[in-house]
Amino acid sequence: MAFLRVDRRGQYQLVDARRRPIAQANRFLAAVVVRGLSRATVRAYGFDLVVLYRWFDGSQHSLSSLSGRKLLQYIESQRRDGAQPATINRRLTTARLLYRFCTGHEINLGRGAMTSAPYYRGHRRDRRLGLHMVPRPRQLKLRVKAPRRVVEPLSTTEVRQFLRTLRRYRDLAMVHLMLLCGLRSAEVLQVQLGDILAEDKQLRIRGKGNRERVLPLPPVAARSISDYIRWERPTEGKARLFVVLQGPRRGAPMTLAGLRSLFRHRRRDYAVARANPHRFRHTFGADMARAGVRLPILQRLMGHADESTTLRYIQLSMADIADEYRRASEEIQRRYQGRG
User: Fold this and answer.
1) Which of 189, 204, 306, 331 stands 20 to 30 A from 252 (CA)?
2) Residue 34: its pLDDT value, please?
3) Which CATH number fits domain 156-320: 2.40.10.120, 1.10.443.10, 2.40.10.10, 2.60.40.10?
4) What is the pTM of this model?
């Protein structure tokens, strides 16, 4: 049985049931740290490795014996545990990276492993935009088919109703940064006092992979941040902008669990049951797309490394489709009614 722990140096480390370090996995995690990837990324790799090594223990397999057929068994095991397709695919990627790191070559899929079929239309071109040539992969990867899901953005009524439930300037400022700037929940918590560039009306963000970007700071969000700093934020607070306001941890940086509780308590109200940090960010992306913001600009605003990720955020929701259909239908009816 494998576990993930933090050692004396503050580094993530995999250990077995007897608390003995698992050398292969820990060398891999150390290499991830050396590459400069974020602590959250190292932690994610660590938990993926925990799942993999626990499967090794239960199936009597080992890293060196991995093959395409055994990866299918690994997928089957995770499906029984209720893992989602996107999670399974990420864990498969981690397993392949660990195998390549330790052995120096790719896993031999061999017989009995069905890989993804190449996309038929748009031969050798990006299938989403059709603009860029893409090379053929040397070896098709074993993956689980993940359903396409369109995250419905919040309606205007839902946003207004949720904002009415907020009683603190701090909470209002955090929601404004998600709704009006498209920040991820982790990015909101990472904002420091020095990142508020008030004179330039800008906000500096540290995103995934420690990539920095500078965003325009809307007047509404700037005002809520200013009111929070002036009236609520403890003077003994640390460098982080958003801190705990009361209790024994007063002045300490807010945690992800604290941010989630802010939304969880309010979702008991049926009128705002769909509200969560990700959906506020998605609403920002949908609003920008509706306003005609071009894809490269929206990609920069949301901090996406790949434009295909941005495309998922701006997919039309059923409400958008219904509105467009209604407008077109009314225009068509007027056209035919005007002819006798």
Assistant:
1) 204
2) 92
3) 1.10.443.10
4) 0.72
